[in-house]
Task: inverse folding
């Protein structure tokens, strides 16, 4: 199941991986805010290139490109609908103007920037560090625990789903045949055992949790602690700088449209 | 008949699970595939019903390569009972569960009904006919899974680790059940690492380790070969251990059954 | 004063028609290595759940009679209070590990208790050493074999430093070598640390050599309770269908033919020793 491969985090070390997740998250938020601030294409193109050095340093080029490919379908729809509705509303029946095309591309790029930034975040943050960051950010422990436990069991459930499919195929279940509706129905013998098994597993987990003093005190301690280091402060500083710069530009500097720059009109 | 010809198999994560395995299982054979966890036993038997296809080499079931047929098709001849019955159970009643495969195979309604009755009766589940399988105990669910596989009367029956979590009496019943299957001239393959259980069944033993077959022969020859058994990370049956320690007193070393042990000892003690 | 004592303990699950354990009166001393066995459904798992408070606090139901563990009345104490005295290791190794690294899992119980980081670090390292899995410290649970996972589960419980450790069929999913290693770890904990051990098992041939106390249950009731040799050799054990060690069985069937060994063996070393005596004596 390749879709689960992305969640099977491998223990990699790079300057980006070792950054505090909270700082990385702040960086992502800044990029989001900046992306929303601008409707013009030029700044968005610039923004698109900002996370790329992080991708290269972290060594996650392949997975990052894969996530972009995954978003390409949705990106196309965003472009298409932006273009079509604005055309029909504003410019029909004339020839579509360059600024309309540029606007649609800009909106699509905004979406892509959001996807790429989020992707970098998840590709370079191990789930346990993320869980730790959540804990230290005072998110209630129950949620942090639910998150890390869910991630921990993803490969287990994936394997179990495979076993269940094998078991039912061995009883003559054909998963490849039949029309669309029949195929969906054929997945019931897979889903039900999977769900029942997940419920049984939850019960066993709950027993183990209780037996190891779950809920003994409100003041839970932690084996690990996240400490901010120089690189974290550097990234935080850069993020703030970016934000301030972007606000200044947005407020005071009019941004030319790319098409006028290239004199398309 | 199952013929495995020099089969190599690797999982998608790169682990090479079978490294050149060849074996022939004739009709009516009773084989125990043994070895420690990770030796390749389950990987091998999953080739018998086409769940896994060899990377190199061939697997023939009654002369037909498993690459040429779908799993559902092979399943008509090869019944596979998985280790955990909860991976199969999903129907509202035990009856429906047992009928599931029969429906998949396209049997007529009256045939299905007849076969279901037969299978339920065989495994003592008739009183649970209309019960939800999820309401039954662990042992009963195992029997439902078994019934659902036997319902279509496959020629070959594969049991994957059937003794895990079973108490002594349940294992006894299983042993008797296997004897019944053999009386019906079925080919039975069990995957297990339970030495005592195998010692009581006395089948043909195929010993695997690290993706290869280390030994293939009668149980009393293989389970009593201390070197072989240790290399496969298993422990000889207790009776064998006792006799090994007394080998210097002239006791035979290929004893696995407790009743045979008694006979030999009595002969030595009283007969002389 | 016994470490665990029950008196006429009876428990019925919510919605149950008959009690899962009935009129159970047992006494377990400090340092005991108890093997608890019996046919499937006899109530051994239910009884174990009573030791650490899962019954009645997690499962509900009706609990009658008395049960005291380490001078605490189970019915009145919460599960987490009992957790520092009674640790429990379950059958499926996979479903006891929640964290993404071994040492975080081992620290889980201590984190719940609010133990300081330095103390936690000490105890985690100690527990990993005691179970022989120091090199697995930073591995993810999914990468481990069943045997390794089960040793992690033992370390998780050990780190909380309980007086009693209960093991509910811990080797069900393991091969004979993996099972042997687990028994050796448990034996070490009993011998070196003086931990009281309660081991629920079917594989008596492997487990019985370590026990000094065997309890057999059937249909919710205690049927046999005593020294391993007595219990395994009794007629009742055979009638219930307990899988006694083959060494003991061999001795029994020899006895049926008039050949009596001087002691009842419970493992292959004892059996071969006794048979050797008998055979060489016979020849002289």
Result:
């Amino acid at each position: 199941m390749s879709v689960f491969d992305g969640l099977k985090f491998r223990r990699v070390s790079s300057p980006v991986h070792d950054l505090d997740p909270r700082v990385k998250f702040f960086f992502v938020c800044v990029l989001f805010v900046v992306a929303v601030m601008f409707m013009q294409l030029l700044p968005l193109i610039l923004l698109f290139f900002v996370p790329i050095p992080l991708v290269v340093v972290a060594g996650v080029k392949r997975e990052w490109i894969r996530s972009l490919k995954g978003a390409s379908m949705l990106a196309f729809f965003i472009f298409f609908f932006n273009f079509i509705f604005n055309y029909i509303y504003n410019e029909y029946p004339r020839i579509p103007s360059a600024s309309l095309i540029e606007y649609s591309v800009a909106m699509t790029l905004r979406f892509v920037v959001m996807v790429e930034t989020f992707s970098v975040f998840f590709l370079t943050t191990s789930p346990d560090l993320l869980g730790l960051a959540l804990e230290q950010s005072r998110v209630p422990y129950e949620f942090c625990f639910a998150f890390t436990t869910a991630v921990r069991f993803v490969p287990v459930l994936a394997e179990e789903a495979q076993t269940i499919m094998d078991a039912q195929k061995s009883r003559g279940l054909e998963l490849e045949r039949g029309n669309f509706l029949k195929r969906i129905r054929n997945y019931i013998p897979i889903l039900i055992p999977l769900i029942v098994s997940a419920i049984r597993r939850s019960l066993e987990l709950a027993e183990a949790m209780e037996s190891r003093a779950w809920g003994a005190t409100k003041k839970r301690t932690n084996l690990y602690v996240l400490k901010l280091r120089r690189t974290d402060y550097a990234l935080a500083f850069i993020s703030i700088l970016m934000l301030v710069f972007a606000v200044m530009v947005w407020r005071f500097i009019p941004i030319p449209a790319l098409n006028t720059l290239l004199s398309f009109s | 008949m199952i013929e495995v010809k020099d089969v190599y198999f690797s999982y998608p994560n790169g682990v090479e699970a079978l490294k050149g395995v060849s074996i022939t299982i004739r009709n009516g054979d009773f084989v125990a595939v043994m070895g420690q966890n990770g030796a390749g036993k389950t990987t091998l038997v999953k080739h018998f019903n086409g769940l896994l296809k060899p990377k190199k080499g061939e697997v023939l079931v009654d002369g037909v390569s498993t690459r040429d047929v779908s799993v559902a098709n092979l399943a008509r001849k090869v019944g596979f009972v998985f280790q955990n019955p909860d991976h199969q159970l999903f129907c509202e009643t035990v009856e429906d569960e047992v009928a599931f495969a029969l429906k998949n195979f396209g049997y007529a309604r009256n045939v299905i009904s007849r076969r279901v009755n037969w299978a339920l009766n065989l495994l003592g589940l008739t009183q649970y006919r209309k019960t939800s399988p999820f309401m039954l105990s662990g042992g009963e669910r195992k029997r439902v899974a078994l019934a659902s596989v036997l319902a279509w009367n496959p020629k070959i029956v594969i049991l994957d680790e059937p003794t895990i979590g079973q108490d002594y009496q349940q294992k006894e019943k299983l042993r008797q059940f296997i004897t019944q299957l053999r009386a019906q001239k079925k080919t039975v393959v069990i995957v297990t690492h339970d030495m005592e259980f195998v010692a009581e069944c006395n089948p043909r033993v195929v010993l695997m380790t690290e993706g290869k077959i280390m030994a293939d022969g009668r149980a009393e020859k293989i389970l009593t070969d201390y070197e072989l058994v240790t290399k496969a990370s298993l422990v000889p049956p207790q009776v064998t251990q006792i006799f090994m320690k007394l080998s210097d007193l002239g006791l035979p070393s290929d004893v696995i059954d407790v009743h045979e042990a008694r006979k030999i000892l009595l002969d030595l003690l009283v007969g002389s | 004063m016994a470490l665990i004592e029950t008196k006429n303990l009876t428990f019925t699950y919510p919605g149950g028609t008959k009690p899962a354990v009935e009129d159970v009166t047992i006494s377990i001393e400090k340092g005991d290595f108890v093997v608890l066995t019996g046919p499937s459904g006899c109530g051994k798992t239910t009884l174990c759940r009573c030791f650490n408070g899962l019954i009645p606090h997690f499962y509900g139901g009706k609990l009658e009679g008395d049960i005291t563990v380490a001078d605490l009345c189970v019915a009145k104490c919460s599960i987490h209070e009992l957790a520092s005295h009674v640790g429990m290791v379950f059958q499926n190794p996979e479903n006891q590990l929640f964290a993404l690294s071994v040492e975080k899992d081992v620290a889980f119980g201590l984190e719940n208790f609010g133990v300081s980081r330095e103390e936690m670090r000490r105890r985690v390292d100690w527990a990993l050493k005691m179970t022989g899995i120091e090199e697995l410290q930073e591995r993810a649970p999914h990468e481990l074999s069943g045997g390794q996972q089960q040793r992690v589960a033992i370390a998780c419980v050990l780190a909380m430093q309980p007086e009693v450790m209960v093991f509910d069929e811990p080797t069900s999913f393991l091969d004979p070598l993996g099972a042997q290693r687990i028994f050796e770890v448990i034996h070490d904990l009993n011998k070196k640390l003086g931990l009281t051990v309660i081991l629920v098992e079917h594989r008596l041939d492997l487990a019985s050599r370590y026990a000094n106390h065997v309890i057999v249950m059937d249909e919710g009731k205690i049927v046999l309770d005593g020294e391993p040799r007595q219990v395994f050799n009794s007629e009742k054990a055979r009638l219930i269908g307990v899988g006694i060690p083959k060494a003991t069985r061999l001795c029994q069937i020899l006895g049926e033919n008039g050949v009596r060994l001087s002691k009842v063996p419970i493992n292959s070393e004892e059996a071969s020793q006794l048979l050797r005596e008998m055979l060489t004596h016979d020849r002289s």
About this structure: Chain A has two domains: 2-125+228-261, 140-211. Chain A touches chain C at residues 11, 126-128, 131, 145, 148-149, 151-152, 155-156, 201, 204-217, 219-225 (CB under 8 Å). Chain A has twelve helices and no strands.
